[in-house]
Design a protein that fits this description.
- The structure holds 2 protein chains of 2 kinds.
- The radius of gyration of chain A is 21 Å and the shape is globular.
- The mean pLDDT of chain A is about 90.
- Chain A is α/β, with parallel strands linked by helices.
- Chain A starts with about 35 loop residues before the first helix and ends with a helix.
- In chain A, helix 1 crosses helix 7, helix 3 packs parallel to helix 5 and helix 4 crosses helix 5.
- Chain B is of the alpha/beta class.
- Helix content of chain B is about 40%, strand content about 20%.
- A 7-stranded mixed beta sheet of chain B has the order 11-10-12-13-15-14-21, with helices on both faces.
- In chain B, helix 7 crosses helix 8.
- Chain B is globular, with a radius of gyration of 27 Å.
- The model of chain B has no long low-confidence stretch (mean pLDDT about 95).
- The chains are: A alpha/beta, B alpha/beta.
- At the A-B interface, strand 2, helix 3, helix 5, helix 10 and helix 11 of A face strand 9, helix 7, strand 11, helix 9 and helix 10 of B.
- Strand 2 of chain A pairs parallel with strand 17 of chain B, so a sheet runs across the interface.
């Protein structure tokens, strides 16, 4: 048996969302990752976010590269089309898919090897172009499927399971995404579902390039003392700047917090993000400020999490290319072919 | 005085312009070629240019050929030597009895000339400098002035050139009149100071007909527009960049919604060729028609994705405008050198469909057809152009489109079909042709979704590492490739006037040189049946053509006779039966070369049998 189907039975009283779907309708096959893998928590968070947003489960395209993280799209949204493509090339495949049909939701799932090493260029250029997508990196600092080599996000000085010290500098994908103009940038931790689920939901509702770096410990190869991507290390060094709730529609904000600590961000599609500030000075609309804040905290060994930057009025690649509203994959010969009369004129100009 | 009789020829000669890259000569030279066409005389021009923007030598060769031989001929009857850097080589390359046209403003020592050619000096710089003061104008109009002088020397009708200039600068009165003025400056000087016309002459004929004059890359790009391509992703690389650029221009003209002004296409200049093909595969997976254009080095980079397209069965169209390899090779020189690299691109067992257009008209047709084939066969289709077809203007039949033609979107299971309860297995061969059904993402809320992957999977797209499941899929892919044989353009065969034991196989840009070579060979007494291969996988008629002949020459423009290897490998042919004729110095193959190579081989075959000789 090389794949595991999940039984479809569920409790008849399971709660339903606005479209009448239960959480089970957003699930996929049974994970084949190691027990306790951080990636499975991210899978659960994606399921939860899509359920909460009442997304039609088949209107998402899940696209990934190669690696443990890239296997996960098989484990959620079983009624969506998935594409486990080529190592490091998820961004280009997603870009093409997005150009073909602007009406679907694009979820790109990648890992640190996939996005910070072999696919660093594609990561950068998809962000630069402002592809309307949610780009999630399940970041564990290690190559899991090939048994424990350092990845490019492993911190300098961190130790591998075999006791080797990493001497290369780490790539911080969040810092790069900010620099390249991503219009929604966040970092979270797979062990913090309450922070992660609304971040994913807000990213999906964001129109433009959304990037979430999720630190996701590898229980098998990178969860030991000396690792800076272990559960214990991330819990100890997690410096959350804010927590958020995503609000759909016009319902009032019910979260009950001290005045002045909640900031509401309205996105293009009318959805609102209620940001509960933890760090009172943190301003998520200030790209340069965010970059400085990150650098300062990284120097102190802290892992800054939360919604780090958002531009609610972002544009996406389709706007830049001025494409028609109708998805390109639904245009037929009548829309696309100029016909023989035009060709005759064209010929006449070449004599 | 030349001791050789000057060449005398009407409507059949080769002029070569030796220029400096970036001097603005290209448009004047093209004007020269077009004006001969307006005389009703076919021409075949070729750019010979360096991988450089400014300063290095560049040549433009125009073969004037009333008989319509559009291949390169070889040899130069008149050299328009405008580049001091290449003077010696240029002068040396003139045929005995030929002509040298040069700027005689500065006197040249007689040792720099040859005594077996006719030297025609026109003080171009002096004329230009006395007329224009602006340096850029001096440079540009100098080109038009030599065109005017050539008009007198070749006895061309200046009205026809004026007409062309008029069309080119329509609405730009100042440019129009100044160009015409420059043309007459040159022409009048030549008429007053030189013996006009010379032995090479252009005489009005009626041999062009309704043919058009177009570059293959431009035609292929228009084919993509007509074929319904909506997504184009590309990375600049010579000699393919003009495909994407032409596609952009055609789309701007033909693909904007008149009401909203919005674009019915998306073009991405990607960060590299890996991303280009990734975008194409993502778009095609999602149901759009997508393509990329590239050249050899780009193909090398794309191979991993090409394997994915083959194995996961995702349509893709790749236009490969071939240039001389390997590695960076000669980026601005032509070859047909990526046959094997494309036919078997990627690791593992793979085979890909190749289309070989012979000229821009076929480039247009095959480009449009490539999108039907890609969606029908759910795999990569290569349109195998080369620099010779792609970047040169070629006279060819007008482009045609049947308005009744609908796109073949292939086997797509729709929401309605899923709703009817049709069994959907993404890799299930329901029709026995090896081609499964696919669904577009987002088609149906509960049915028809599947997980696309480059890993092995069963007929229902479920991951599997079981040997028999893997083998079953690989065999189906073979069946699909067999199906392709009857869908791709068939080979065209033309037999010799009398039955012969010898045949020749050729393809792509070799076509015009081959047609001309057949005539030369017939004059030498060698009869050959010929077959032009237009696609891979090979149609069964290729094997029977070879079986019907003792020897078949395979003419191609690469060192290793790659098409021959492909034929031997795919059809199990005895290699001895296929005689390689290869031309690979980066220049386009010529009729003279083919006729000599085949003719010499044939002469050897005609050795008198020993028994006859002694009896």
């Amino acid at each position: 048996m090389t794949y595991i189907a999940k039984p479809k039975f569920h409790h008849p009283g399971l709660p339903k969302n606005d479209l009448g779907y239960t959480r089970r309708d957003y699930e996929g096959k049974i994970s084949t990752l190691c027990a306790g893998c951080g990636h499975d928590s991210i899978t659960a968070a994606i399921i939860e976010a899509c359920y909460e947003l009442s997304i039609e489960p088949h209107r998402v395209a899940k696209i990934s590269g190669i690696g443990c993280s890239s296997k996960t799209p098989d484990y959620f949204l079983g009624n969506s089309h998935g594409f486990n493509s080529v190592h490091g090339r998820m961004p280009s495949v997603l870009t093409g898919a997005n150009l073909a049909n602007r009406d679907l939701i694009y979820l790109g799932v990648s890992g640190d090897g996939d996005s910070a090493s072999i696919g660093f260029g594609q990561f950068a250029h998809s962000i630069r172009r402002g592809v309307n997508m949610t780009y999630i990196v399940e970041n564990n600092g290690v190559y899991g499927l090939t048994k424990g080599q350092f990845s490019a996000t492993a911190d300098r000085g961190s130790k591998s399971k075999k006791g080797i010290t990493n001497t290369d500098n780490a790539i911080d994908l969040v810092a790069i995404a900010l620099q390249l103009g991503a219009t929604f940038v966040a970092r979270s931790f797979s062990g913090d579902k309450s922070q992660l689920v609304p971040l994913i939901a807000a990213a999906i509702r964001h129109k433009g390039a959304s990037f979430i770096d999720v630190i996701s410990p590898c229980v098998t190869f990178n969860n030991h003392a000396g690792s800076t991507k272990s559960f214990d290390y991330v819990r100890e060094h997690n410096d959350a700047v804010n927590r958020l709730d995503v609000l759909i529609g016009r319902e009032p904000i019910t979260v009950d917090y001290a005045p002045g600590t909640v900031q509401v961000v309205e996105q293009h599609d009318g959805s609102r993000i209620a940001l509960r500030k933890i760090d009172a000075d943190y301003e998520p609309h200030d790209r340069v400020g965010a970059m400085t804040f990150l650098q300062k905290h990284a120097a102190k060994g802290q892992i800054v999490t939360g919604l780090l930057y958002v531009d609610p009025d972002a544009e996406d690649l389709h706007e830049h290319l001025n494409t028609v509203e109708k998805p390109l994959n639904r245009l037929e010969a009548d829309d696309l072919c100029p016909g023989s009369a035009v060709l005759d004129k064209f010929n006449a100009g070449l004599r | 005085m030349p001791d050789q009789k000057p060449i005398s020829s009407v409507n059949d000669f080769v002029v070569r312009f030796a220029n400096v890259n970036g001097s603005g000569s290209a448009s004047a030279n093209e004007l020269f070629a077009r004006s001969i066409l307006r005389h009703g005389v076919p021409v075949s021009p070729r750019n010979i240019f360096p991988s450089n923007i400014q300063g290095l030598p560049t040549w433009y060769e125009v073969r004037v050929t009333e008989q319509g031989h559009l291949g390169a001929r070889g040899g130069v009857d008149m050299m328009v030597a405008m580049n001091p850097q290449t003077w010696d080589k240029d002068v040396a390359s003139i045929e005995p009895g030929g002509y040298l046209f040069y700027d005689s403003t500065k006197p040249m020592p007689s040792t720099r000339f040859r005594d077996d050619i006719t030297v025609v000096g026109v003080p171009l710089t002096a004329i230009t400098n006395s007329t224009y003061s602006d340096p850029r104008q001096r440079q540009l109009f100098k080109n038009i002035i030599y065109l005017g002088a050539l008009c007198a020397l070749f006895d061309m009708d200046p009205k026809l050139i004026e007409q062309l200039i008029g069309e080119q600068y329509k609405g730009k009165e100042k440019l129009l009149s100044s160009n015409i003025h420059a043309l007459h400056l040159g022409r009048d000087w030549a008429l007053q100071n030189l013996k006009c016309p010379i032995g090479l002459r252009v005489r009005k004929a009626d041999k062009v007909g309704d043919r058009i004059f177009i570059e293959g890359n431009n035609a292929a790009a228009l084919g993509a527009v007509y074929g319904g391509a909506t997504v184009c992703a590309w990375y600049p690389i010579t000699p393919s960049s003009s495909v994407a650029e032409a596609f952009t221009n055609h789309c701007k003209k033909y693909r904007h919604d008149p009401a909203t002004g919005k674009a019915k296409y998306a073009i991405v200049q990607a960060e590299d060729e890996l991303a280009s093909i990734g975008v194409v595969i993502g778009a095609s997976w999602n149901g759009a028609r997508a393509f990329t254009a590239t050249s050899g080095p780009g193909i090398s980079l794309m191979t991993e994705f090409i394997g994915l397209s083959y194995f996961a069965e995702i349509p893709a169209v790749i236009m490969n405008v071939q240039r001389a390899g390997p590695s960076t090779g000669m980026p601005t020189r032509t070859q047909q050198c990526d046959i094997l690299a494309c036919a078997y691109a990627s690791h593992g067992d793979t085979k890909h469909v190749l289309l070989f257009p012979e000229d821009p008209a076929e480039a247009f047709e095959f480009a449009a057809q490539a999108f039907d084939l890609a969606e029908r066969l759910q795999t990569t289709i290569f349109l195998m152009l080369d620099l010779d077809i792609g970047m040169n203007h070629r006279l060819c039949r007008p482009l045609k489109w049947d308005d009744a033609r609908q796109y073949d979107r292939g086997k797509v299971m729709t929401a309605e079909m899923l709703e009817e309860g049709r069994d959907f297995g993404r890799y299930l061969d329901v029709d026995g042709d090896g081609i499964p059904y696919r669904t577009y993402p987002g088609a149906h809320p509960t049915k028809g979704s599947y997980f696309t992957r480059g890993t092995s999977r069963d007929r229902y797209a479920r991951y599997s590492e079981e040997g028999p499941v893997y083998a079953d899929n690989m065999q189906r892919l073979m069946r699909k490739f067999e199906t392709a044989q009857d869908l791709v353009p068939r080979p065209l065969q033309a037999n010799a006037p009398k039955s012969t034991k010898y045949g020749v196989i050729y393809f792509g840009s070799t076509s015009p040189a081959m047609d001309e070579a057949i005539e030369l060979l017939e004059k030498r007494g060698h009869l050959l049946d010929r077959m032009r291969i237009r696609a891979f996988p090979f149609h069964s008629s290729v094997a029977s053509f070879i079986a019907e002949h003792d020897f078949v020459y395979v003419v191609e423009q690469n060192r290793d006779s790659q098409l021959r290897s492909l034929i031997v490998n795919e059809n199990g042919i005895d290699p001895v039966r296929l005689v390689p004729i290869v031309h690979y110095d980066g220049s386009p193959i010529t009729a003279r070369f083919i006729a000599k190579s085949i003719g010499d081989h044939q002469d050897h075959l005609k050795v008198t049998p020993l028994r006859k000789a002694v009896s």
